[in-house]
Design goal:
This protein has about 350 residues and is mainly α. It contains 14 helices and 5 strands. α11 packs across α13. The structure holds tryptophanyl-5'AMP.
Length: about 350
């Protein structure tokens, strides 16, 4: 097997209402991985338009996600931060993958079924083909590791299937063109930490999401201290005190969720949080959680506000990141063209 250099890629959609789930499930890990890996972080604006977006809001949301990356601690000089539409290889490689992936594979994607709902005939073709674009995002950079929340697991399995099928379908050409025995790496998902699936504050059986109509279902990264504290105070709970061990959270989705959030924000395992709060009522735990959340999230919200007030700076970060991303992606695409048998300027 060809040895691939460890490289991280991940993306976040600029569809508004960036929330605690995005932060704990993904962005916190983006920050941590910078120490050990070369990282490429992308604001996936082409994914966003698989569902219609108001153009002015889309522009604002691209800047908001970029601001969140930077405010959380992503370093755009040491690593790469850019928006997807500035690097045309994403679309080009996605087309090749449209011809590698099978209809049956995409038909099984639960996120498409959920988002398209009953009116499938009316969903955009882009919404159906979305996982192929996601595979292109990752594989344009030959990324070996992808940090995401639990909800992206199926899409990452598809990206692996696409890489494997491409490597098999073109195996002779890959060898003939001097790429060894595999052109694409089989990417490892990194779904880690105590908050890989943060749930709604109103219903512990539903995922916290950008599209939930209730603002009280999520803590937005842009929320101020009062907003954060109020949402935690109003979060749904049950009447029992907290258990002393994680096993006692079974069948108590709201309690489990709040303990998971506390654990992730404090960087401690759930066991340690319950060793401290086991036996406490929510009237004790919720204020402690609110204090911790404000302490950790308010500085990020403040820094996001400061950055968003300077759109020219944010745009310059994205242009610079895209210039560096393009160098890597163009090299991959040239290789793909040779492997597939296309003619190109050399
Ligand atoms: P998106 O924009 O929906 O979410 C961004 C990241 O946040 C994670 N996430 C959560 N984690 C824990 N709890 C939650 N409630 C929660 N909600 C969201 C997501 O898992 C994700 O990691 N298709 C992707 C974007 C994408 C991508 C990629 C990711 C496009 N190309 C390539 C990785 C690699 C998406 O819609 O994420």
């Amino acid at each position: 097997m060809t040895e691939f250099k460890p490289r991280v890629f991940s993306g976040v959609q600029p569809t508004g209402n960036l929330h605690l789930g995005n932060y704990l499930g993904a962005i916190v890990n983006f920050v941590a991985l910078q120490k050990t890996h070369e990282c490429v972080y992308c604001v996936v604006d082409m994914h966003a338009i698989t569902v219609w977006q108001d153009p002015a809001e889309l522009t604002g949301n691209i800047r908001e996600v970029t601001a969140a990356f930077l405010a959380a601690g992503v370093d755009p000089k040491a690593h790469i931060v850019f928006n997807q539409s500035q690097v045309s290889v994403h679309a080009e490689l996605a087309w090749v993958f449209n011809c590698v992936a099978r209809m049956g594979w995409l038909s099984r994607m639960t996120q498409f079924k959920e988002k398209a709902g009953k009116d499938r005939e009316n969903a955009s073709v882009g919404l159906f083909a979305y996982p192929n674009l996601m595979a292109a995002d990752i594989l344009a950079y030959l990324a070996t590791h992808v940090p995401v929340g639990d909800d992206q697991k199926q899409h990452l399995e598809l990206a692996r299937d696409i890489a494997i099928k491409f490597n098999n379908d073109f195996s002779e050409s890959i060898v003939a063109n001097g790429f060894g025995d595999a052109f694409f790496p089989v990417t490892e998902p990194l779904i880690t930490g105590p908050a890989t699936r943060v749930m709604s504050l109103r219903d512990g059986t539903k995922k916290m999401s950008k599209s939930d109509p209730s603002d009280y279902s999520r803590i937005a990264l842009a929320d101020d201290a009062d907003g954060i504290a109020q949402k935690i105070r109003k979060a749904k709970t049950d009447p029992e005190p907290l258990p002393s061990e994680p096993g006692g959270l079974k069948g108590r989705p709201e309690a489990d969720n709040l303990v998971g959030i506390y654990a992730a924000l404090s960087g401690r395992p759930k066991e340690s949080v319950l060793a401290e709060f086991g036996g406490s009522q929510f009237s004790v735990f919720k204020p402690a959680l609110a204090e911790l959340a404000v302490e950790k999230l308010s500085p990020i919200a403040n820094e996001m506000r400061r950055l968003i007030a300077d759109p020219a700076y944010i745009d310059s970060v994205l242009v610079d990141g895209a210039d560096r991303a393009r160098v890597i992606a163009d090299r991959t695409m040239a290789g793909v063209k040779d492997v597939v048998g296309f003619i190109r300027r050399k």
